[in-house]
Write a structure and sequence with these properties.
Blueprint: E1 10-17, E2 20-28, E3 34-36, E4 46-49, E5 60-63, E6 74-80, E7 85-93, E8 108-111, E9 122-127, E10 142-147, E11 153-155, E12 166-169, E13 177-178, E14 194-200, H1 218-221, E15 229-233, E16 255-259, E17 264-268, E18 276-277, E19 294-296, E20 300-301, E21 346-347, E22 372-373, E23 398-400, E24 424-427, E25 450-453, E26 469-471, E27 477-479, E28 489-495
């Protein structure tokens, strides 16, 4: 039998259990008001008087229409569960001229469920974990707080165990996480006493998937196509925002969502001061996101990252990029890191620690609008390959690489290919010998006027494509393959 939806602002109730009659009197019911119907040994289920309630039979209020006397404002309901029986009489009384359809009255819940152990509301017992160091300030690992049905604290104080960030779970194995605010307020209504267990969260996001069948960055895959801005932050996710699952291990330590009609993507730990942890392999992280105009990296921790290959590849609309927040001390691969970033005009690399980098192949390839590139802070002492590093950097006029240590570098082929506006090049720190690949190193550098070598220059290997006749500071002339060895000097092109 379906229940009857009761819409009322004031109501009188008569509860009859056998010979016992309980008269509630006039009661104003608003919102999700709950009337607990109790007998001497009552144990039962929650019952809902609602037009939408299913016919479940037992443990339900059933309408007895014969007792209404034809009055539509009077409802009589027989009550039965496994321990008690009785009758609930409900009378609707209104003090205005509105119709029932004009009143937005929620369903009224009548329950025989056992109330919480605290008369003020529902008791939530928070369990820490001493073995994991998750204890409260007083050294205990248990804390009780009383909430009302709306999830608001009415007694006790919410505490967070010591730890970087703690999630709360409804099971001891910490599989089913429940969402609380910073202040310990439940985002959903409570209807019983519960126990919650603490687990320290991790804050790593997904990265490059090494599965050969996928071979892409999982974080990149989750960036919506219409996003123009990505911000790493500490902000709390808006309650109604749809979660983008970027968390690496599924514990919910990191969440992402979109704002501004889907054009801004925010990635957050939701804990102030706790940064989002980038994956060890962050290769292709922002790969081919041509609509991106801004990436805020200030709350991204890259201290564990070893691979940044093609990290910003083909972000063609980026005009500037603040790299100062990046910790690159463990990075070994920066190949193609900024390849095809055709909108970048300047790039501050002063904060990049490249002491462990071995691969800078195509690092700035096709950054066609770069007009200024200060590379004096880069440590290249462990780099073994620099092929195509500056290829197609068409706007560079001067390039000072005097700080480059290339003793371990074995491949410089195509390094400056198609830098057709490059006029001045300082390679005074370079080690160059016949054993190093320099094939087409200067191909199509037709406007190159001066080039500076240091004492570690010995001789070019096969085909560097450095044509013409050159004059040193003493006025002596040389062809590219006859530059003197182990002599620091500047050479000026005098003819093709």
């Amino acid at each position: 039998m379906r229940g009857k939806k009761i819409k009322m602002r004031e109501m009188r109730s008569r509860l009859i259990f056998g010979a016992c009659t309980v008269i509630s009197g006039a009661a104003a019911l608003f919102g999700m008001n709950v009337l607990s119907v109790m007998a001497e040994e009552n144990v039962g289920e929650e019952v809902v008087v609602s037009n939408n309630a299913p016919d479940t039979g037992e443990n339900e209020l059933s309408e007895n229409a014969l007792n209404t006397g034809g009055d539509e404002n009077l409802g009589v309901y027989d009550f039965k569960d496994n321990k008690t029986t009785g009758t609930v009489t409900v009378t609707k009384v209104w003090d205005d001229d509105k119709t029932n359809e004009e009143r937005a009255i929620p369903d009224i819940k009548i329950s025989t469920a056992k109330p919480g152990k605290n008369p003020l509301g529902y008791t939530v017992t928070f369990h820490g974990n001493k073995d994991a160091g998750l204890v409260f300030d007083d050294g205990s690992d248990v804390n009780e707080v009383v909430y009302n049905s709306s999830g608001q604290i009415v007694d006790g104080k919410f505490k967070i165990p010591n730890g970087t960030g703690v999630g709360w779970y409804t099971d001891m194995n910490c599989k089913n996480r429940i969402d609380l605010t910073y202040d310990g307020i439940f985002t959903e209504a409570l209807n019983s006493d519960i126990d919650l267990w603490a687990k320290e969260l991790t804050f790593k996001i997904k990265g490059f998937n090494n599965d050969s069948s996928k071979n892409f960055n999982d974080f990149n895959y989750l960036i919506p196509d219409n996003v123009t801005e990505i911000i790493f932050t500490y902000e709390r996710k808006p309650e109604l925002a749809y979660i983008i699952d970027v968390d690496a291990d599924g514990d919910g330590g990191v969440v992402a969502w979109t704002e501004n009609n889907g054009t801004t993507m925010k990635v957050s730990t939701q804990i102030k001061g706790v940064k989002v942890q980038a994956a060890n392999n962050s290769g292709f992280m922002f790969y081919y996101r041509p609509k991106l105009t801004n990436i805020d990296l200030s709350a991204l921790d890259t201290s564990l990252v070893t691979n940044m290959s093609c990290m910003f590849q083909a972000c063609k609309e980026l005009t500037n990029l603040n790299l100062n927040p990046l910790n690159t001390s463990n990075v070994t691969d920066m190949s193609g890191m900024f390849v095809h970033c055709r909108g970048l005009t300047t790039l501050d690399l002063s904060n990049l620690d490249t002491s462990n980098v071995t691969n800078m192949s195509s690092m700035f390839n096709d950054c066609s609008k770069l007009i200024n590139l200060d590379l004096l802070s880069l440590n290249t002492s462990n780099v073994t390959t620099m092929d195509s590093m500056f290829e197609h950097c068409n706007s560079l006029v001067t390039l000072n690489l005097s700080s480059f240590d290339t003793q371990k570098c074995k491949n410089m082929s195509f390094m400056f290919r198609n830098c057709d506006n490059l006029t001045n090049l300082d390679l005074s720190g370079f080690t160059i010998s016949e054993e190093i690949s320099v094939y087409n190193m200067f191909d199509s550098c037709d406007n190159l006027k001066t080039i500076k070598f240091g004492v570690n220059f010995i001789k070019f290997g096969y085909g560097p494509a450095l044509y013409g006749t050159w004059s040193n500071t003493a006025g002596e002339t040389f062809y590219y393959d006859s530059f003197p060895s182990n002599v620091a000097d500047t050479y000026t092109k005098i003819s093709n």
